[in-house]
Amino acid sequence: MKSTLIFLAAFLLVPLHAAQEPAKRPNILWLIAEDMSPHFGCYGGKSIVTPHVDQLAAAGVLFERAFVTAPICSPSRSALITGMYQTSIGAHHHRSGAGMKIELPADVRLVPRLFQQAGYHTSNGGYPAMNQGKTDYNFAFDPGIYDGTDWKTREAGQPFFAQIQLMGGKTRDVPKALAAARKQLGSATPAARLTLPLYYPGTPAILDDWAATLDAVRITDLQVGEIVGRLRTEGILDQTIIFFITDHGVSHGRGKQFLYDEGTRIAFVVSGPGLPKGRRREDLIEHIDMAAMSLALAGISLPDAMQARDALAPDYRPREATYSARDRADETVDHIRSVRTERFKYIRNFLPRRPYLQPNDYKDRKPSLIALRAAEAAGQLNDVQRLLFAKTRPPEELYDLAADPWEVKNLAADPAHADTLSELRAKLDRWMEQTNDQGRTPESEARYDAEMAVYLRKPNPVVERNIALMKQWATEGR
Question: Is the pTM of the predicted complex or chain greater than 0.70?
Answer without folding.
Answer: yes
